[in-house]
Amino acid sequence: GFWFVPAVEVKIEVVIPEKERSKEEMSPNGKASPLIYKVNGTARHYHLEEHPIASNPYHNPKDVVEASVCHVKDLENGQMREVDLGCGKALLIKESGEFHAVGHKCPHYGAPLVKGVLSKGRVRCPWHGACFNIGTGDIEDFPGLDSLPRFQVKIEKEKVYIRASKQALQTQRRTKMMAKCISLSNYSLSSTNVLIIGAGAAGLVCAETLRQEGFSDRIVMCTMDRHLPYDRPKLSKSMDSHPEQIALRPKEFFCTYDIEVLTEMQVAAVDVKSKIAVFKDGFKMEYNKLLIATGNTPKTLSCKGKEMENVFNIRTPEDANRVVKLATSKNVVIVGASFLGMEVAAYLAERAHSVSLVELEHVPFKKFFGERVGRAVMKMFENNRVKFYMQTEVSELREQEGKLKEVVLKSGKVLRADVCVVGVGAVPATGFLKQSGINIDSKGFIVVNKMMQTNIPGVFAAGDAVTFPLALRNNKKVNVPHWQMAHMHGRIAALNMLAHGTEISAVPYLWTAMFGKSIRYAGHGEGFDDVVVQGDLDELKFVAFYTKSDEVVAVASMNYDPIVSKVAEVLAAGRTIRKRDVE
């Protein structure tokens, strides 16, 4: 491997991992729902209400296992080891002379945390960057909702023992203790303490965080979707997923913790003076605190024939499922080499008869990953039968008997198409706020501060629809429309609804999955002026550092774990990585 040593003593050794293909993206539906475990073929819901450590957490002595797992000298400081207790595994960690034991699997998609990054009291997942406190198991950065179980460690005669609940060893996750709503019965239907508009990651994490912090008043979430909150990134990565499989929480969870969800309800306007949200159907709801987490609306094509049947934006599980059905053994045209467009192309490549991708730039992902990485990814797609039509756009869609038949390009080329997927970007879903007095920028983003507060007291905003000051880039106001950041925004908003005064300081982390391979990315590369690549682009085994003048502002990698999580930890500690450290 090579070393890079930033100005502050941060040594990151990059060792090329041995050949191993993570199961992360391979069995999309085996791991689809973080809450359902297949046990002997039957689905079983596990849901733990956590017990405070003070009371004996092991009510049932039969549920407890205690085992000696190693010798005191087996672990150096800063080392992690997966240990087996017979009926399940734990992650044993030694830091500053102390031993800690927590769950060994990331509750998000089950990544082995022993392959992650340990730094100053927390472990960061190697796959998607979630962080857990090694002392408590609590989740500190996202994605995912649950924390790790924490196990008791004791040392006797130079031997390390772990005492754990068998159930926790089996589930490998812990839902933090949550308050309930004290007095639902005496509410008027049309008023709530907290109203959350939008039921994506930001909205759900906000609601859960309020309950975790002991908030016991009414919480109402509303969504235009038909479904309870689900894992939306899965829609383009494993398009066959059914809503139940990708639910972030089972229905019972919302009942247990009194989080009310109104589905298929669209807010048409917000009156911030009288603190009322007006719904499209005329229903009005009064609130005390408001979170706006409405996310994005996909852009549509502006050409002739855009309203035709079989032309899709992928927005819901129904859209994704329908596209797979229509595309199987047929001709697919995808417009836009965006994350969504490329993931859909990869998913359909082995199912469709043909997949064509139309893009204005000359290389996919050019703005995001740069020319060289974009080219390497493009080659991987071409090797998997995806045909690119670059530096052109769609001039019209043609039909036969009301159904899509051909896509005509400005270059004059005519592509056969039974189904067309449009992935040409998105705009913030903030039109309903136009007259509200809430501060919105020229692109339609809601402007918030580091506490997720808008210019109106008591009104917060989070997720894809906002711009916020990014500590990493000198508090420049940025929009980060990614899954991890939406979770973090929701958490910060909730803490500040409760007047904690918490400011956001997270490092953006995202991933894309194509043909069973992942590209991981951390930082904020906007405006990068150079890319330093280590490893081998042709072999798709590389790490790319994105620099602006002298500073590394972002990193991307393929088959090079856990380098992105390592860099994310360095940046999260507020350290600067210089270009010369990575060259």
From TrEMBL:
Gene Ontology MF term list: 2 iron, 2 sulfur cluster binding; metal ion binding; oxidoreductase activity, acting on NAD(P)H
Subcellular location per the Swiss-Prot or TrEMBL entry: Mitochondrion
Domain Rieske span(s) in chain numbering: 67-162
Main location: mitochondrion
A matching Pfam family: Rieske
Keywords (A to Z) from UniProt: 2Fe-2S, Apoptosis, Electron transport, FAD, Flavoprotein, Iron, Iron-sulfur, Metal-binding, Mitochondrion, Oxidoreductase, Transport
Matching InterPro entries: FAD-oxidoreductase/Apoptosis, FAD/NAD-bd_sf, FAD/NAD-binding_dom, FAD/NAD-linked_Rdtase_dimer_sf, Reductase_C, Rieske_2Fe-2S, Rieske_2Fe-2S_sf
Assigned GO CC terms: mitochondrion
TM region(s), chain numbering: none
Gene Ontology process terms (BP): execution phase of apoptosis
Annotated PROSITE patterns: RIESKE
Role: Induces apoptosis through a caspase dependent pathway. Reduces mitochondrial membrane potential.
Family note: Belongs to the FAD-dependent oxidoreductase family.
Descriptive protein name: Apoptosis-inducing factor 3
Organism, as annotated: Mohoua ochrocephala
